[in-house]
Amino acid sequence: MPSLPIRGIGAELDDGNELRFVDQRTFGGWHLDEYTPGAEGGLPVSIAHIAADPFDPAYDPAAVVEVLRRKDTEIKRALLDQTVVSGVGNIYADEALWRAQLRGRRRTKGIPRAGLLSLLDQARSVIVEAITVGGTSFDDLYVNVNGESGYFDRSLNSYGRHGLPCPRCGTLIVREQFMNRGSRFCPRCQPAPRRRTRS
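Predicted structure:
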């Protein structure tokens, strides 16, 4: 492997090119890795467990639905699980769930296949729309490489709107704690899961 003498946020490669890493949100890191065997050279070992995202040619929504139905967990938790489908973060999960009219606490096993497919379609649509307008910028950390803000925050229906009317039905959007973060939803459009009654 070529040596990579690190210079601040960059490294000079053996061929004279320079590699730079800019992480505005300070969540990331970088390192050299071995590749797993597979098509087109495989994947780095450290990310081989990550599922395909909705734009990957290997992405198969029907296969993802089967994974979701086997998991029997809360649907939002599963949607955020990068081993199930990658690329869906908290903001876009809330938006996709709002569009699909599903509460994030619903169990995956109790959602019909058609509902899960609809949710995956909505997640992809949300991401496409967000990319088209440059993403979701709430402050100076959420900008593109040119320092320009994205405008998808102007199209949000649930995320960041707690206490405001639902754009679909007028009920106030609610925020609840979920996985050390917040979930926003409409209690009317996204009804709570029905409790199972014992006979």
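Summary: The domain at 61-185 is CATH 1.10.8.50 (Helicase, Ruva Protein; domain 3).
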